[in-house]
Amino acid sequence: AMRPWLLLLMLLAAPAQALLEAARGEADWRRWGSGEMSWFGFALYRATLWVADESPAPPSPPLALVLEYRRALPGERIARASEEEMRRLGAEEAELARWGESMRALFPDVAPGDTLTGIHLPSGGARFYFRERLLGEIADAEFARRFFAIWLDPRTRAPAVRSALLQGPPP
User: Fold this and answer.
1) Which residue among 20, 51, 64, 120 is least crowded, i.e. fewest CB within 10 A of its CB?
2) Of 25 and 129, which is predicted with more confidence?
């Protein structure tokens, strides 16, 4: 019989496949927090954080960040913006050059309604999905730490989104 949380997850989230794929052999997932990212009044995406069921607060890996896009953006621009934020938060230039190349190779162009899911694996790396299709993995713990810091670090450029992501599920 299918576990009830699996069914609930499938009903709740378009990228359920991605989450279930990554969760195989790991803890159950639960939705933690969600917030709208906008830039100068333009809605860019809704970010939703999923955590392993027994995750402490603040959450630690495994965790999943689902970005549901509100507008079309080229993958190159998503990679460049990620790189700029990682640089702003202190990543090294040599690593950024390597990571930038990996992100450009992975991130597709998105249209409104598309989802990109990033999973911070317990092993320390990051796995990415577009809609429900696996894009690939960047098996580098430092990359994953820096990438998810874009949203979760106290110095994030989007403090309102960070607090919405970290507020935890409704009681």
Assistant:
1) 20
2) 129
